[in-house]
Specification:
Blueprint (H helix, E strand, L loop, with lengths): L4 E4 L6 E4 L5 E2 L5 E6 L2 E3 L1 H6 L13 E4 H7 L6 H13 L6 E6 L7 H13 L3 E6 H10 L4 H6 L4 E7 L3 E13 L6 E7 L5 E5 L4 H9 L25 E4 L7 E4 L8 H16 L1 H6 L2 E5 L17 H9 L7 E4 L6 H14 L6 E2 L4 E7 L2 E8 L5 E2 L4 E4 L4 E3 L5 E8 L5 E7 L6 E9 L7 E6 L10 E4 L4 E3 L3 H11 L5 E2 L6 H6 L6
Parallel strand pairs: 1-7, 7-8, 9-15, 15-16
Antiparallel strand pairs: 1-2, 2-3, 4-5, 4-6, 9-10, 10-11, 10-12, 13-14, 17-20, 18-19, 18-23, 21-25, 22-25, 22-29, 23-24, 24-28, 25-26, 26-27
Length: about 525
Amino acid sequence: MSTAVGVDLNGVLDCVAGLDATLRQAPVPPVVVTDTPQGTLTGTEALLSPFGRPGLAAAVGQRASVLELLWALTGADPEAPRRLGLHLYSLLPKDNRNGVIAVPDTPTFNEHARDRLLGGAAQADVNARLLWRPVAALLGWGATLRDAHIQTLHGQRACVLQLLPEGIAVSELDMECVEVEQDGRPTLAPVRRRDGLRKMHPYAERLPRLLAAETGVTDARLLWASAWAWNALLGRPAESDLFPDAAAPSGWRMVEGFSTLRGELALVMAATVDRVLQEDRAVLRNAAVILIEGPLSGASLKPGLRNATSLGQWLQAKISDPGISADLIVASTTDGLVARGCALCAERQSQGQITYYDFLPMLEINVLRNGEPVFAPLIDKNDRVEGGKTYSDTLADQFMIARETRSLVFYLLKEDEQSARRSETVLSPETEVKINLHVTQIPAQGHARVEIRPEVRGALGNTPILLDWSAMTEIDGSREQILFELSMQGIGYPDILPQRAHRLIWEKTAILNT
């Protein structure tokens, strides 16, 4: 029996699935309650706890929504990663705290956020690996297809529309058909392309504020007290709830639930759908498969367009026009497509099988070439890597640190980051030291690791020189500004050495004739 476990962590309808088990959904809405007499509470215990919710115990404990904790990963809140780690711990089986977790493939959920999520999981003794959400969705969908259908998808393009609490994410991927070595059967391998569209169309305002306006509540804590406010978003029947209210004659107030979105939230969702269709229609037309999924795909809307009653169905109906010939699939939230795709990824990678193909953001470091400061690529833009595998490379160039260099100043530039990073290492080699620059990174698993390796062990001291993007100092200077400052300062950093080469190479490049 497989022990692979996948987690769809979205902050509204979190769920866990294995290959041999039924889908298990977390209580709605998922919350974490801290600073209670019982310590930190998660899962059902947290949701039903009186602490941190309107009532007599409101002043005791802090109730944090998993949704807002996920959003906080992009910032600096030190508690968000730890609380999310505890939430993950409560989701996973007691005998298996290992899981592959789906994360957004959007510009805002960057390597900083992914690093913090992995760090929080580790603090809670959860062995977590991350997988792009659209890749997980395609893997989960591909597992439901017949062999002959999978073979027809080779070389085709897919567009995954993800109906998320932040908005609607659009992801463009390629699909390849690969054979499983054990039995020779075809399997679907998504291909994440550097030039593929990865875009988030955010709602006009944050979901909690929109939901508060839809429900008419003024105390936002009511949203995180029970599922009463969320059922319409999940396509579930309406439920009412009873909350303490000191202003009411009885001391209690009944809050009415609802099953259909009709107010501002419905209008905002409709406007976001229209924006997707207007801005990304070319991507939809180029796709052979359009997969619509997400925790809000079942959101109940006032009947209108072609009798569509859910957000997913409404989006499907609006996409259907003569210019789009793709297969349209709307995944139900009960399918657990993303969680099952994560579990499938875990199983295949444990057996050394191909799961998907990925690329890594370009990474460059400052060096001296012919006495001039330049940036040299550590990760090439043309490199395609296998998902889940460690990318490792040592630059072909050799570098030299001059004798009695007092310090090395390194700058890193990343393709998906606007700012650069700076690090200074104090040292004083007695002689010239030849070094290599070595980089390692795993797709989706956080920042790359750059190591400065001297050819002679210990030549730069006994402590390895490591460059960690998240630990380096952020600076606002552009590439040109950094190079200009380096040329003016003359601070020590690696100097590229001349390389030995065969005469035929020089003749082929016509260098000898110049």
